[in-house]
Amino acid sequence: MIFFPTKGLLAVYDREQKTIRALPGADNPAYVQCNPVWSPDGRWIVFCQSKSYLFLQPDSRLYIIPAGGGEAREMRCNLNGMNSWHSWSPNSRWLVFACNAFSPYTQLFITHIDAQGDSAPPVALPHLTAPEWAINVPEFMPRGAPAIERITLKF
After folding, report:
1. What structural domains and CATH numbers belong to the chain?
2. pLDDT per position as a tens digit, 110-121
């Protein structure tokens, strides 16, 4: 059996009250909201929104919302094409994400997030993507973390 969600909203679990409630601003029943990522400072949540299925859709857009709920805003960093797979920097000022706006394969982009949660225009990171390879889940690594020295292809 294959499962493809056609509806989805983000919810918050209150550990003290032991209740679940929809996250205001990320609960539009006309869309699938998924893949929420909290900023390390707990201030913001970035999530994907598309008309159907998950975040791998051509219409997938990144939205930002205050962690406590509120108005979800489409991020200025979105490009034409799938915008998805995102990760915060450790200082909550940068967001890296994958997009296939310029290639059938996803490429990495980075955007600056200011104190008001506004994103800057995206900057491509082509030196981190090999031709004809897709980037799936980009992650920031802390300084001094061990790096991958080599990727061996075995299919």
Report:
1. 11-128 (2.120.10.30)
2. 999 999 999 999
